[in-house]
Every structure is written in structure tokens, then in C-alpha cells.
């Protein structure tokens, strides 16, 4: 989440689709059920219910239409309700006879239920994210309440809960289970309790109503962000208005103008259209010399989906009341379950506790704040030396522009000049070579037409991972790389299409192979050239592939903890952030950076400058992430507690009183921001990570997991990055532990198996030019 509106590994749609709370999130898997009873009465001609004709059994993304959603999901839920009732009757009969719960009769039927629902509902929500239409939105909103109701029924099934509880409490039976199976049992007991299974009838009814409203609000939040993002365009007609903008951005802006009806638009003559989508917005803020236009773009971005979104008529996209209501309902939900606040509830299924996460973020904040302030002072002095008015402060819309000038002068290069070396085809070749070097798998593109692979857009590509030793396929993934502002949500993410599982193995195979989809929003090809990528876009691709590798290279056969499933949320970013480090490895970077026209490699001296520039304004970037993390934690704790306290309690504690979330964020920002926010700053209204994703009271996970990822990468540094044999050996160990074990072992145990010890923050501190001594001085008592 380092860039504008970046969104990695979202969970909003998956949570709505879950039928076993967190342990069964995002089961977007294929339709076979390995002999478990399935309804034969479903209309398999409906593409949402089609089981597929090949071993992958991929969803029919190319054929699914909005009108298919209600009939398919409605019929499927009716079938699943009947199968769940049958399962509950069997479990109750077994319990009444005194017989212990049996794994195959408990877990496998539940996995089958979740798999079929997840495949259909997951496909719908995926298409809503990448191919949004008004008709599809309406279909989702119509069906979503019934999906949420079914997920509540499963989570609150007393028969299912009692069976898991009995299995957990039976020492002999529980002890005979594998480590992964014990994790599944423990998670299902915990998640049933967090899902309201122990609540009384009235409380359970209220709990379920809260769950329904939260699902609706999350969808509304996302729609408002997308609609307001699409609504703004900046159309420029005069060359003086685009002074300083690089040729690549002008070509992209002219293409966007043509897409919006200016048939004769060209990079040289204009007109040019700029949007709030990241590939348009960010380079504009980096290079536009017109300060007033930078301010206009900044204001449009920071006021999205709010009460001050001036470019959208009416109040229909205002997320302020949506955010307040979400926080109110989350707090009430936590209270119903006996937690002080939602942050404490969120931590019940994570590595960290609320106290340890808050302390870690505060320690990092204290260590970097003064350095970040000094970086800003340095930037201000630099700008004034080059003509910025001495009587004016540097504003937010100035920072990116002048930081790019300072970076270019200090390190002798501009990122824009390096774009020709980072064409998507070359980047993919280099990235796949790295994956082969580290993890001994080849990545081969599959022709979607000849293999009849269903895709949702003509630009989508499909790849297969093959074991280098046997040549056998081990996994596949989709890549949807390019920005499509009119229909595709911003940011980047990875999610499941099909999970690894022995339960759904096709005929003649031992397991079903996992399939992922990776979605980014990078610069598209323009004027016959390939997609020429920025540093951030390359890093994002590395990041998302890290997530996908954990999903695809798992060796866990228990489907409920294979790959990313069952991994504690604050550890799930370990493989993704680990992969980002490799972008700066000499062999990797020089292997992928070749000029798209001349095939010349990136000069060695430029590599040295790129690595030196990696730490440029590192404290500022760290503080930005810490601001988001601390605001998130405190909104879900201090703010929510105070807002729901009595007036006398608030007065006694000098707490929030009549504050809204904007005033609260500003108050938190007094210790986390170097620049005070603008009056119109409504960032929270588009902060999808915490209001429409899986990061509520969990945004700290990026930094928490970065401690793990930096320490993991340090193992390769210690082995010697130029020692190919050593790198391959450590890579095999990483694959055999972090990637292979998935959610089948606790994250700390997995890390210790790889590293031989518990993690330390030393490597992360080095990456951010923060020494252990600096951290010790800022430690929280």
C-alpha cells in the first residue's frame, strides 16, 4: 500500500462468501466433490454453476452475465441448505449415540459446501472488481443478503461447533490428528465463537443483522470510491499546461482523450485527459510544473467519495456516514462477543495482540518521526533554492514534485528515464527467471484460445508453473495487468481461483492444482509500444507474485489450510514483501532491465544509483505507513469506545466527545504527520483497506510482516547474494517452509523452521536506515 489507492489481497467479497467464517474465506474452487453428495438438480447450463470440462474446472468468466447471478446463487444456496441440514442431522445422531466425531464425516462435507459456494460467489465478486457494471452491481446487491445469511448459519451451527469442540477435547482423537488438522479444528472452534455460535437468541439475531448491514455498507463504500474516481477528469488543451510531463504520460493522456471522444488527440498536440487512476495521477504529481494543476489533482483525489466531492452532483457518493456507521456496528459486534472494542476482536485471530501491535507501531513511529521531519526540512530548503517562494510552506501537492527533483539531482537519474528498460515482457522474463532460480519451477504462458481458457478481458494472460525436475505442472495463474478506469477497481491484489486439495482431485490425479489470479493496474501499452513500467509498478508485480507463490507452491493437502488459507492475517504479507527485496538484487534487476527497442542492458552505474536511491526519504515513507496503521488501530479502539461511552464518561476521560472520524484522524496526525492535512482531506473516505477490505484493525500487518520478510531476505544476504549455489539452497528451504506449509502450521513456527530462530527487527531497521540503538532509545516502557 505504498502507492495511491493500492489494494493488496482484499477480503471484502471473500468474507461475504465464507461459509465457515475465517477458516473458509475465499474458497473460489472448482466444482467436483470427490464422491460427496452434490445436488444433481442444479442447472449446470448456467455458467456460474458449470463445472468446467478440463482438469482445472475454471469458472466461465467469459460467459457469466448479471442475469445469471440470482438464479444460480439462489438455487445453489437452496441445495447447500439441504446438504447442511443433512450434515447437522448426522452429527447430532452421532453425538447422541456417544460416538466421537470423525474427521471425514465432519471436515470434508464442510469443505465441499464452501468450495461450491466459493467458486460461484467468488467468480461474481471477482468480475465485479475487474468488469464492473450497473447491472452486475444490482445483481450482487440482490443476492448478497442470502449469501451472508447462509454464512451466518454455518458459522453458528451448534451441531458443527459441538462436533469440532468434542474432537478438540478428546485427547486421543485430537492427538492422532496431524499438525495441519489440529490447526483446522482449533480455527473452526475459535471462528464459530467469533461468529456468534454461543450467543443467546436475541443477541444472535442482532449479531446477524449487524453482519448483513456491514456487508451492504462495505459494498456501498467500494462503489462510492469507484464511482467518484471515475467521475473526475482533467482535460487540458494547451501545451503550457502540460509542461514538464514526460512523453509516456502525454501519450497515455492522449489515448485516454481518444477513449473519451477526442478522436484526433495526440501526444504532441493534445488534448490530454488525466484521471485519478494511479498510472495517470502519480506521474502527473511527479512532473507537472503547473502547481495549480497539481493542487487540483491532489484535491480531487483527497476528496473522493466524501461530502466535498465537488465533481459529483448530489451526495450519493459520500462515504463519511458509511464510515461512521461501519465503526459503530463493528464496535457493537465486538461488545456482543465480550470484547472491549473491535481491535481486540480483530486480534483474536492474528499473531499480534492489540497491545503488542500498538507498541510496535509506536516504537517505529518514535524512531522515524524526527528523521522524517528533517527530510521534509531538507526538501523545503532544496525547493526554495530553486525558486519556490520563500514565504510559502511546501504543500502536499508540492512534495512529490520536488522530491523527484531532489532525487534526480542527488542520484543522477530520473525514474521516468528508466521506463524503457522496464517493459512488461522483459520484467516478466526476469521475474520468472528469479522464481526458477529460487524455487525450481518454470513459468510458461498458455495460449488461452487453444486451451479454451476463459478470460474476462482480451488483455488477460494465463500461465502455468511446472516443476523443473519432473516437468509436471504444479499450479496456474491469471495475470490482469492493465488499468481500465471505467470498469476496474484501483490497486493491486491476488486471490484464489482454485485451491490445492486432495478432496477435489480430478480423475486420475492425487490433488487438484491451485490457480490464482493476480490483478494490477499498471500503465497499459500505448501507441504500439509495450507497457513501460515505473519502479512502483515493478515492485507491485513482485509483491503480488509473492502472494500467488504462497498459494501456488503449497504442499499442504488439507484444503482448508492450503496456501494462504488459515494463515494469520498479520503474517500473510511475508512472501509478498519478501519478493519486493529481489527487485534490487543485482542479478535480478540487471537480468530484467533491458531497453525495449535496443535490447541494451541497464548500465551498471545506473544499478548502483538505483540501489543507493532505495533509502531516499525512507523515514517519510515509513511514517506514512505508520500513520495509516495507527489511525486504523485507534479508530477501532479509542475512538469507538469513546463514541459509544456515556457523555459523563467521555468528559471524565477527556476523550473524543463530539469528534467525527475526520477530527480524530487529525488529532492522531499530530504525532504521525509532518504536514498538517488540508481542510478538505477526506482520505478515510477512500481507505478501502479498512472499510471495505480485510485490514480493519489490521493495517499494521504490513509493517508487522515486513519485520518477518526483511529478516527472511537477510538469510539470503548472509548466504551471499552472488553465491548462486547458496542462494538456490536457501531458496529451496524458503519454498519448503514459508511457501509449502501455508496455514498448516503457526506463522512463528514456520518462520523458525526457515530461519532457525525467532524473527528480529534488525534487517528492517537497516533497510530504513534506523539502527537498533535508535529503536532502543524510542522503546515504549
Can you describe what's shown?
- By secondary structure, the protein is mainly alpha-helical.
- The protein is built from 30 helices and 7 strands.
- The longest helix has 32 residues, at 354-385.
* SSE class: mainly alpha
| Count of individual beta strands | 7
What integer value in Å does the Rg equal? 26 Å
- Helix % is 40-55%
Q: Sketch the major β-sheet.
A: 5 strands, mixed
Low-confidence segments, ≥5 residues, pLDDT <50? 1-39, 650-658
Number of helices: 30
Terminal residue distance: 30 Å
Strand order of the largest sheet: 3-4-5-7-6
**Mean pLDDT over the residues:** 90
Topology:
Layout: H1 12-17, H2 66-96, H3 103-130, H4 134-155, H5 158-169, H6 171-176, H7 179-194, H8 201-231, E1 233-236, H9 247-259, E2 272-275, H10 278-287, H11 291-302, H12 320-336, H13 342-347, H14 354-385, H15 396-411, H16 415-418, H17 424-439, E3 441-446, E4 461-467, E5 473-482, E6 493-498, E7 515-522, H18 535-552, H19 574-581, H20 586-592, H21 604-613, H22 618-643, H23 647-653, H24 661-669, H25 688-691, H26 701-719, H27 724-741, H28 747-755, H29 762-767, H30 772-777
Parallel strand pairs: 5-7
Antiparallel strand pairs: 1-2, 3-4, 4-5, 6-7
Helix pairs in contact: 2-3, 2-4, 2-5, 3-4, 4-8, 5-7, 8-12, 12-22, 14-15, 14-22, 17-20, 18-19, 19-26, 22-24, 26-27, 27-28
